[in-house]
Design goal:
It contains 13 helices and 15 strands. By secondary structure, it is of the alpha/beta class. The protein is globular, with a radius of gyration of 21 Å.
Amino acid sequence: MSKKIVIGGNDAIAYAVKQSLVDVVSAYPITPQTSIIEKIADFIAKGEMNARFIKVESEHSAMAAAMGASIAGGRVFTATSSQGLLLMHEVLHWSSGARLPIVMANANRAVAPPWSIWAEQTDSLAQRDTGWIQFYASNSQEAYDLLFIAFRVAERVKIPAMVCMDGFLVTHTKEPVEIFDDEINDFIKVKEKRDVLDIDDPKAFGALAFPKDYMPIKLEQNKAVFSAADAFDEFSKQFYDISGRKYKELEVYGENNAEVAVVALGSIAETAHLAVDVLNSSGIKSKLVKINMFRPFPKKSLDAELKNVKHIVVFDRNISHGKGGIVKDEVTGSLGLGNVIGYVCGLGGYDVTEDDMVNAVRDVLDGKVKEDSYLWSEK
């Protein structure tokens, strides 16, 4: 029988890994992710988790070891953050191209310089083209739940997946999380068949491909990433039957016939819930469109939710230098909408309140802001 305990997102991930029948964990410590692997190492040392922990000298090596374990047929987990994720960049492409269903937790943290240990999503969003499935948790319960679903989705489509959560705001903020007992066993024990290293059935992995072969291989990989959306829907429904908690590509909150749609992902979406409540109570019909699955990009779902909305305001805790907010750019680029205003905010953990978001939306409605802007003050 499930029980509620008060933990942060890092511990929630560690408990989910413990219950996911993981064979190998390969990771390197980095703030604010470190307590994930410390907790997992403790589970293994106490015999509470039957897995091999591989100690490595860097995040690049952590992913390389994870790849080897996955090619050998293991269910594999790793975790990282910020500079560590950037160091993995080369092997993120390799693991996706090799169709290895590794699952990783990323504690979103600002990218140096200057050095910062606080929340920002530029690190993972900068990896959006590596071919990894990307989930974004806005609280500890979502981090726990999405990890189980991530394993099933990754193994179904044979594409690696990362579960991202904002550093400290989710990783360390303690809140009640419902932890399974054995209810999850039947869901998580299923392991899909795939090609692995086998001395009795030799195969080549990562061989040279000529152009006539390379392009169709990449097109098939792209198709597999897109298919993760259907797999997510299938396994989310199964997960709902077990937990009573429902997950979709998008979570929509607020008025159905909204005049304003606020778009966000990660912990800032929690603040956006409050902002939408304030806007609605003041007579401005509003809704939140929270992105739970960023890759594959939920184009059809977003189009359905945004096409009839007069004003769309995107809040980005990230930045593509020389362009602006990454999520805003993806929304406009994919949907071709011209009524979208983006605010870059919360970089390096800079505080963003519901009042900030409410005032930003009102500035758009009043015509004071007609192009992308920033939530920042010299005060």
